[in-house]
Amino acid sequence: MKGKVALVTGAGKRLGRAVALRLAREGADVIVHYRSSEAEAREVVKEIEAFGRRAAALRADLSRIAGIQALFAAARDAFGRLDLLVNSAANFRHTEFLAATEEDWNSSLDGNLKSVFFCCQAATPLLKEARGTIINFADVGGMLGWPGYIPHSVSKAGVILLTRALAKELAPEVRVNAIAPGTITMPGDPAEWESDYIRRAPLKRSGRPEDITDAILYLATASFVTGHLLVLDGGRTL
After folding, report:
1. Where along the chain do its domains lie?
2. For the chain, how big is the Rg over CA atoms in Å?
3. pLDDT, tens digit, for every residue of 22-76?
C-alpha cells in the first residue's frame, strides 16, 4: 500500500479505526471519515501520522448526498488522488417487524445502502484515474436475514448485490469487492456476544479486528479479484 491513498468511512471507532490504522501501517496515506466522533477521528489521525504517513479527519453526514459529494471533493483537494475506498460506516438498528416505522426503514437503508451507493459514485472518477479499488462492508445478516433486524438485513443484502453490479459497471478500471463479517468482538464488548458466537460457529470463536484487516488488505491488493463477497464468520453461515 506504499504511496497509495485510502479513504475509510466511519474510521473514528471500532472496525473502521482498525482498518485505517492497518492501511497506514502498510504504507498508505489515509483519509479518516467521521460523522460525530471528531475526537476519536483526530486521535486516529495522530496515530497514523506517528507511522510517518499523511492523514486527515473529514466530517460528513453520509445520509445526505451533498455531504458525500463535499467529502470526496475535500479528499481530492487534500490528497490529489484516491486508490482505495473502504465503506465501513453503518448503523445496526434493532427493529421489531410489527413496530417498525418509516424512520426505522429509512435509517437502515439510508445509512447502510444509499450511503454506499453514493460514496462509490462520488469516488469513481478518482478511482478510475488510479485504477483503484472499492471494498464494501456487508455482513452475514445480509445473507441470513435476522428477525428483529429486517431493515438492516435488507440493507446489507443490497450492499452485496450493489457490489456485484458495480464490479461489472466499473471494470476494468476499478475493482469492487465486499466482506461479510460475522460477530467481531473487541475489548469492552459484552461477554455474551462472544459466548453466543462460540456456540453457533464451527470454529468456536468470534472474530477479531485483525481478521477483518487481513481481509481488507488482501482485497485491496488482489488484482484478479472483483465482484467477490468474502465471508468472515468462522463458519457461522454453514
Report:
1. 5-231
2. 17
3. 999 999 999 999 999 999 999 999 999 999 999 999 999 999 999 999 999 999 9
